[in-house]
Automatic annotation (TrEMBL):
Lineage: Bacteria, Bacillati, Actinomycetota, Actinomycetes, Kitasatosporales
Segments passing through the bilayer: none
Keywords noted in UniProt: Oxidoreductase
Superkingdom as given in the UniProt entry: Bacteria
Name of the protein in its database record: Arsenate reductase
Pfam families for the chain: ArsC
Family the UniProt entry places it in: Belongs to the ArsC family.
GO molecular function, one term: arsenate reductase (glutaredoxin) activity
Amino acid sequence: MEIWINPACSKCRSALTLLDAEGADYTVRRYLEDVPTEDEIREVLGRLGLEPWDVTRTPEPAAKELGLKDWPRDEGARDRWITALAEHPELIQRPIITADDGTAVVGRTEEAVRDALSR
């Protein structure tokens, strides 16, 4: 199990606390420092079953600078979104937990983190 975190994020810290309390075996990836490649983002999106716009933090200043709210949300724009996430990792929703069964969840709630633990 791997968890992508921003240590400054309270949701990330809560997820780590729960993983520790449950004795989970996991690896931490500080994705703002160890930035995922476009291929890694594609893989995680596949594991999540989501599109890049579904995991984009649109209130972030970088999203506003890029004008993401006006970008199309379709297959033709998918690569453009993925490139933006790779170039601006602060736009990636957090925390993302990749479960041992090959799936992933966005662990913003205790229920989502428990779901990842159960897989």
